[in-house]
Amino acid sequence: MDQLSASDALLLALEVPGAPQHAGGLLRIDPSGAPDFGFEKLLAVAEERIRLAPRYGRRLREVVGGLDAALLVDDPGFDLRRHLHRIAVPAPGDLRELAELAGFLFAPPLDRSRPLWQAWWIEGLAEGRVALLTKTHACLSEGVAGVGLGEWLCDLEPDPKPSSRPSAREPAPDPGDLRVALRAAQSLAGRPGATLRLGGSLLRHGFGRLRSLRDPEAPPLPFSVPRVSFNGTPGPRRAFAAASVPLAAVKEIQKRFDVKVSDVVLALTGSAVRRYLERRGELPKKSLVATISVALRDTADASRGSALTTAALPWGTDRSDPVARLLRIHRAAARAREFARRHDAPLLPQLGEAMLPGFLGLALRTSAAGAASAALSGNAAVSNLRSTPVPLYLGGAKVESLLALSVLSPGQGLGISAVRYCGRIDIGFTVDPELVPEPFELADGITPALEELGSN
Predict the structure, then answer these.
(1) Which alpha helices (DSSP H) does 246-321 contain, by range?
(2) Residue 443: enclosing H or E segment and its boundaries?
(3) How far apart are CA 143 and CA 147, in angstroms?
(4) SS3 for 93-131, per residue?
(5) Low-confidence ranges of the chain (pLDDT < 50)
(6) What is the pLDDT of residue 304?
(7) What pLDDT does 256 receive?
(8) Fold for domain 219-386+411-454?
(9) pTM for this one?
(10) With the C-alpha atoms ordered 249, 253, 258, 259, is the resulting torsion angle positive or negative?
(11) pLDDT for position 22
């Protein structure tokens, strides 16, 4: 029986109108080296890969009353053409036109009566290029944001040998009301013990926070985060913008200042945000705060959800000197990771194990809306994702760039995802256009920020 993990069930429960919980990927593709590459070839590749990834052919079977995590069961009406669509931009389309269409297609929530993913083949781009936009509900991919569905369709060589692996698609029929009820009862019986474990984790987290009040280098507290124009409640619309920089130039800065590549990415995005707010006359004197994902050391029980937490750190927007900004971010990021690994636990999975998904989803949605109006964990989330250092191929055509589209959190109308791929870092800006009307104003600040750091 294919059942969502506790953390994935919570991602499903958190979804409300205006706050869909799907992430996306945008692949730009050069088909010139694959004469037979086209929409029908993409359909054939997707049909083959579906057999190796059962969840992409399954729909939700939610438990009445939210008494247990939802199941994934076979969709008897599954039709690949309901998920993989064909569309075009006015030719010859450039990056801005592609990004505008991507934001429009990315915005609507996924249909819960069908498997929770969709993709669009986009034609009409300049120089004969095409693109593939994917969106996948976070509950299908353990909550990991990124271009996952697009990469899953790709190969490491243009003409791979036919797969010799047996089909991994096992049937998952609807188990029926009785089996679902029995499984929910078993889950209820284990919740008291899970509640005790959650209580211990919350106490450790709380004591760590109390001790941090005397530490000037501790991560910022929610009530200390300044608000700017993109810190409103995200609505139903989305827009997208992107920039790309050479990985070699970023690594040169990394080595010169003895920092991490992720620190340089944070510095570049912080510089772009600072420049954007300066032009609008709303740059606060206090530094904005970025939130990042941190892998916890204790990953022994990965079956209960990914061992990740988030950490907040000053984004350096209060520093006019780009080198000072980078070094401040480096120190703050190292401290934030250390603090998270010492005091945090994967609380969302533990919450899911201790409380009923239906009740907890309602509580989290209510508290998130209230917290977003009173305090912020950060001004924006910045994700650093790694792909392959070598080219990917889709149906024999070379993938030129990978971009990720982000889930927007309460109080954050801006999400940033950077993907390292094939010698470049592609940086995507996902926004609510009511809060960030011109997202390319942010994206256009990345290259000047890199040049500024490189000249120091």
Answers:
(1) 247-257, 261-279
(2) helix 440-443
(3) 12
(4) ECHHHHHHHHHHHHCCCCCCCCCCEEEEEEEEEHHHCEE
(5) 143-145, 164-166, 298-305
(6) 42
(7) 96
(8) Chloramphenicol Acetyltransferase (3.30.559)
(9) 0.88
(10) negative
(11) 92
